[in-house]
Amino acid sequence: MNAHTPTADRTATEPLTFTARQFGSVGEMFAFGAGRSGGHAFLNERFLGEIGKRMLDERQRLVLVGVADQDGSPVAAFAFQQRRKFGVATLEAVDFGIVDYFAPAYFGNTALSAADTAKLWRAVTKAVPGVHAVAFKKMPRLLYDRPHALSGAAFLKPMGTSATTLRLRGPGRPSVVPEKMSLAREVRRKSKKLEKIGPLTFEEARTNAEVDEAMATMVAFRTARFAELGRHDALLDPRVVAFYRSLADRDGDVPLARMFTLRTGAVPVAVIYGISHGDVFTLIVPSITTCREAQSGSPGLVGLFKTLQWCRDQDFAVFDLSVGTLGYKSRFDAETNELFEYQQALTPLGLPVVAEARLRRWVRHLAVRYPQVRSTLEGFGRKGRSSAPAAAKTNGDGGN
């Protein structure tokens, strides 16, 4: 999805009207936005196509909506999943624990006004009859300084969490030199620790055989690590593993996903999985060994730093450390961006869905304000986690 439409060039006083319709396939939605910018790693044709193939069950479906203005010019594109919650049909942002952002594509230059955004949103919800509630979360106000279709929305609520982004280059800002970052000295020290175990190497998986080996190592690391922590991880779900493996396939010219392995001698100590889209590299899954000797050398931190250096060398503009406020992310001198959510009952039957989501938001804000509450809630979560479905965000570990 690349360029701009007449909507972006209209005067501020000229009223806008919108019409929305559903698409029958991912390909049809991307044909609607062909030649226009607005997509990102999680609103990518291949990414959504693989979700449709691998993540949906018989009770779910992708709902893809395009919005045009009164001239018929494409304005925006949305990707949702429809499922049943509390027995009623609900429209939600595509998530499955593997989507970091909800940022619907927008084909204009500047964000729509709050009033026009409200009109656009009404058109979107009317295009999907039969649902009783709609909900989304993890929405930044801007994504990499660019507006999306709901950037101007006045109805959003803060989630109480944020995403972390490091700008490597751009207009009006000096290019980042990783070797001069405050973190670089510690990385050098930790690297020396790892080198005592064996020669330190950092390599990208460039063949499908290497991808398979890296995937197996990553899954083994995450399984052992999260069992040790008493927490659930999305990579325990075979569907998620197959999904990530498909994105890293090396049969094409440029894979959507990239995998890197940090080794001491012949032994892997960290695997980094990320998605490259345009000039943005997004961290998806960091994983580290459970070997105590290697952990003392912070292989996750060293691996992430070397991934950052690779991004600089490949001329990426953004190194996105993604959703979450884990301590290791702040050490990259990056900026944080607040994330928002929204729930709306479209009929009275949707009210329980909205009430449950608002309760979750209240608990989340309480946990941020009172860390002891978070510890108590996590303790309860560990007791019942073994039977829970995969839903944990996969980049929640890797700072050691």
Automatic annotation (TrEMBL):
Sequence segments annotated as region (Disordered): 380-400
BioF2-like acetyltransferase domain ranges (all copies): 184-330
Xref: InterPro entries: Acyl_CoA_acyltransferase, BioF2-like_GNAT_dom
The name this protein goes by in its record: GNAT family N-acetyltransferase
